[in-house]
User: What shape does this take?
Amino acid sequence: MAGDRDVLTAIRQRRAVRHFEDAPVTRDQMLDVIRAARWAPAAGNKRVQRYVAVLDPTTIRLIRTVTPGMAGHPKGLIVVCLDWERVAALGYGGSRSIFYVDIGTATENMLLAAQAIGLGAGPVTSFSKEAVSVLLRLPSRLTPELMVILGHPVPRRTEHQSRPRTPTRLGDLVIWEHFSSDRANDHGY
Ligand SMILES: Cc1cc2nc3c(=O)[nH]c(=O)nc-3n(C[C@H](O)[C@H](O)[C@H](O)COP(=O)(O)O)c2cc1C
Assistant: This one.
């Protein structure tokens, strides 16, 4: 398979966007982003996530009041929920943490898709699950776990878009072959 360096560039350039212009996000753009979530890898291909797509400005404003992690004013929200009825139907006896891993894979796909169609996006988990459930009229089987905020990014407004990526050294992240308590794994990168 031919390599695609564009993917690596997109991954490197993606930033959490928090501040947005007034221009609206369209339904088609929301669907493009959610479509990308569908292609994300999912444990056992179980697909127990549900995506609540919100464009209504009043609902977004209300959600913002219960979301300390939302700094700016997004024009669209995708609230990723877990469907516990579907989890129960699977008869799955393993750790539930696997479903949160799936939320992560879907979220990164959505963030990259938003970037690819010219939107800015960011993940948000700092919100009141109870209040968001009420505002979205969610049945008890659906729990909101993460939201992706979307909009047209304010150019160079956010500290994150202009700052260089936090300089985590690759050498601090990577352990080659096996753990060792001496510095044998420090390769200087
Ligand atoms: C699970 C998760 C939860 C996050 N929650 C929030 C949040 O509530 N509010 C926020 O502004 N950013 C949130 N972020 C964004 C991170 O702060 C951001 O990804 C990190 O600072 C790295 O910046 P970058 O994405 O621009 O590389 C969250 C990210 C992840 C992965």
The helical segments are 5-13, 27-38, 57-65, 84-90, 97-116, 129-135, 159-162, 170-173. The CA atoms of residues 30 and 136 lie 17 Å apart.
